[in-house]
Amino acid sequence: MKVVLLGSGNVSTHLGNALKTSGHEILQVWSRNLNNARELALKLNTTATDSYTAITSAAELYIISVSDDAISAIADNLQVKNKIAIHTSGTTGMEVLEKASDRIGVFYPLQTFSKAKPVDFITIPISVEGNTEEVKNILLKLGNQLSNKVIEMDSVQRRTLHVAAVIAGNFSNHLFTLAKQLLNNHQLDFDLIRPLIAETAAKIQTINPLEAQTGPAVRNDKKTIEKHLELLQNDFKLKQFYQLFTESIITTHNSP
Amino acid sequence: MKVVLLGSGNVSTHLGNALKTSGHEILQVWSRNLNNARELALKLNTTATDSYTAITSAAELYIISVSDDAISAIADNLQVKNKIAIHTSGTTGMEVLEKASDRIGVFYPLQTFSKAKPVDFITIPISVEGNTEEVKNILLKLGNQLSNKVIEMDSVQRRTLHVAAVIAGNFSNHLFTLAKQLLNNHQLDFDLIRPLIAETAAKIQTINPLEAQTGPAVRNDKKTIEKHLELLQNDFKLKQFYQLFTESIITTHNSP
Question: To probe the interface with B, which of A151, A156, A163, A230 has the most B CB atoms within 10 Å?
Fold first, then answer.
């Protein structure tokens, strides 16, 4: 397909690369920041623009990959009536695209992207929604070229998936940050727990996290919990986290 | 070395295996539950007992690997004055072993063990403490046979390391459990976020978790945060987690 990318962030970058690798043609990169558009266009060997009126009408698919707040403004300025316009957001409803075209959809790749680190699209689940059977089928076909896990989902399910991803991905990364701060405050290196973090994630690839739970809370080991809270007594925030998790783990593992 | 294992749980099992593989001799397994002692003894091709008086005095090293609450009672009953007695707890001080012997120490492997899943000891950081230079050096030497990351640490540092491990390992696993429950409540499969969890852990093997942070909170994307909280409005617990993390991420990433 002939594609225009609107946005030049992490998702645009990785999706653009994956589409190009699969044989699709990236006609243009649009961004409100021309330098960013040019940078991505250079990587994808295509043209760049920051003007709505300069957006080519020669493409079949227009992909808006920008922060959630910015999607609707771009969609309102995009006039591609008979073409497919989609966004890649987990949380935004499909309907914000209605002014852009009659053929709209969502194509949400569930992964934590950073520009620096290459990702293997094939393992990334892609959630797809279309306002007509025709659009949906085109997006399913496109998804299956990039990933081996493409699922049709409505907006509520997609938003739920996004929240679950924020909890399991973003929040656990923040726990790593908090743990690193604690270690560094005691002249200990974050390297000490990197293998543990790798093993924790590896474990639940095959078993259920409920069975994988270890630690003082699931054992209801009050002595250890007390000693830990004592160590954290001057760290109000960490103590709050420790208590919330400990109570939640105890409740979760003791309810019938 | 000739070794007696006291305890038959996950740590005893994996440590016993690793010691045997490194050429050490496991003389005996003691557990207050004779069946458990026998089960582990069978795996290690050695003898089992549940009696304190039947513990052999022929070993050089006695390793207590039991829940933190049970260590001191076992140490008080263990009479091995001129032998080395150690425990493997991250949180318990070395001094609880004082009645067992004059040569005491701690040998704390930092990993999440489950009996079913084999672990590669070589990547597991081991924290070592001894009450004399001689004991400490023996434990450092032993540690270096099993792992490529052996560090001397005092009790406060070891406890801090344990708390950091609980936060980064046990607590993130609980986040996976909460995310799974949310997905299942909306007829979505946990498989959808397994790759994301793998990638989140893989990312911080090479970069700092502070730099790796993604998601609506670090972008301070209020619209998305609001939509997520709306989706969680009937789930008091998850909403509490979502708010605490979101506030903490915003604060962490906006402080000077």
Answer: A163
| Chain A residues close to B172, C-beta within 8 Å | 171-172, 175-176, 197, 200
Sign of the dihedral defined by the CA atoms of residues A199, A200, A204, A207, in that order: positive
The CA-to-CA distance between both ends of chain A, in Å, stands at 53
Take residue B229 and report the two structure tokens written for it.
Answer: 């909280």
pLDDT digits (tens, 9 = 90+) for A84-119: 999 999 989 999 999 999 999 999 999 877 666 677
Angle CA(B217)–CA(B242)–CA(B214) in degrees, nearest 5? 30
Task: Give the model's confidence band at A196: pLDDT under 50 very low, under 70 low, under 90 confident, else very high.
Answer: very high
User: In whole angstroms, what is the distance from residue B161 CA to residue B165 CA?
Assistant: 6
The size of chain A, in residues, is 256
> How far is CA A250 from each of CA A194, B149, B158, rounded to the nearest angstrom?
26, 32, 24
Determine contact, residues B164/A135, Cβ cutoff 8 Å: no
- Give per-residue pLDDT as tens, A16-60: 999 999 999 999 999 999 999 999 999 999 999 999 999 999 999
Chain A interface, best mutation among B95, B199, B254, by max A CB count within 10 A: B199
**DSSP-based three-state secondary structure for A71:** helix
B132 inside 8 A of chain A by CB: no
Closest approach of A56 to chain B, Cα-based (Å): 30
* Chain B residue with minimum CA distance to A237: B248
Q: Please tell me if residue B115 touches chain A, with a CB cutoff of 8 Å.
A: no
ipTM given for this complex? 0.87
Gap between the Cα atoms of B140 and B253, Å rounded: 39
How far is residue A182 CA from its own chain's centroid?
28
Q: Is A197 an 8 Å CB contact of chain B?
A: yes
